[in-house]
Amino acid sequence: MATPPRTPLRHPVLVLAAATLVLSVLGTALVLSLRDGGDPARPGADTAATTDSGTAPEPGVQRRVARAAAQVADIVAAAAEAPYPKDPRVLVISVDGLASYAMTERDAPTLRSLLRGGVGTLNARTAVEATVTLPNHTGMVTGRPIDAEAGGHGVTWNHDSERTVADGVSSIFSSVADAGGSSGLFAEKAKFEMWDRAWPGALDQVEIDPGLARLSDALVEDLTHQRRDLTFFHIAAPDVAGHAEGWASRGYRAAVGRADATVARVLGAVGDDPALRRDLLVVVTADHGGTPGTPEHSDAEAQADYRIPFLVWGAGIESADLYDLNPDYADPGTEQPGYDDAAPVRNADVANLVADLLELPPVEGSSIGVEETLDVR
Ligand SMILES: [Zn+2]
């Protein structure tokens, strides 16, 4: 890992205010460009949509998502042929509420192309104890289960609160900072500010903004202008739509498409920047899924809630199934194994996968992905 100069920590509120002022114009422009109707003729696109179930998003939504994916198809395909980076940087993208069943070719063509072109699985798992946002995200950055009495990070609540992780719980952000590196967090939900309190000074940039267009503008600006070792990007849209209209509903599927087009937009920026194209490794996973036809995802024993995608894409990473590449992990079939059972790929593998990609030791005190380390090539 390189040791770039630290950029001063900016206060999230100031960042938010600045982002609101400076980026609202850009955000508006993006929204307008997403809404414009200048779609090139794509024979068959509309007829294909009519064969979908009654929950298919509007054809215009599907066309925009497909077009965004098509624009980055070359970038996605070229990565496997490129040399593996000498000094990788990592972008973790967590799509809140993205169930594996929802990551379809129709609704998530960019994510599917990353899954095809990189290494991954649609059969990864959440934490065992809970399938809700903050506990699972905190697992991703600590490499721990949830239950503090069993060595977990102790974040059992899922709301904005003054509480923080259990005593002595470290994170991948702390590891990066201790090694002289730089991390950034871009999240749509205010409860993520907890991480900045849990590990003071470990995050060099924190942006919390519930507007996905503005947040992704800020992310792209940061990715292309700062050399961070680790950037964590949280996209809330599918979860928000799932709670409002139900998982697998038309609105939910459209939100999955919006998340997918956002990933495409970020990949487009990566493709335009030679250094990012050479060095950036992208990890995509989710905190939890959700049960079709309900606004719920909190049943930790429901497969629709605990089955999530996990993929890694970037230069020098060749297409493979994550379980095929990692015989020390075990495909869990339809089950949710316990922590003492053969390990499935879990979202909490993110922490030590990132540590490994950045050539750092395992996160202090972590237990997931330590004895079995997730290989991506
Ligand atoms: Zn939720």
Describe this structure as you would to a colleague.
This protein is α/β, with parallel strands linked by helices. The protein has one domain (60-357): Alkaline Phosphatase, subunit A, CATH 3.40.720.10. Helices cover 40% and strands 12% of the residues. The protein is built from 15 helices and eight strands. The protein has helices at residues 12-35, 45-50, 59-71, 73-78, 109-117, 133-142, 172-178, 193-198, 212-225, 237-245, 250-272, 274-279, 303-306, 322-325, 350-357, and strands at 89-95, 119-125, 183-187, 205-208, 230-235, 280-285, 307-314, 320-321. The chain has an eight-stranded mixed beta sheet with strand order 4-3-5-1-6-7-2-8, with helices on both faces. Helix 8 links the parallel strand 3 (183-187) and strand 4 (205-208). Helix 9 (212-225) packs parallel to helix 11 and helix 10 (237-245) runs antiparallel to helix 11 (250-272). The protein is globular and about 50 Å long. Residues 97, 133, 239, 243, 297 line the site of zinc ion.
Summary of the model, kept short:
Helices cover 40% and strands 12% of the residues. With 377 residues, it is of the alpha/beta class.
Task: Give descriptors for this structure.
single chain; 377 residues; alpha/beta; Alkaline Phosphatase, subunit A; 15 helices; globular; binds zinc ion
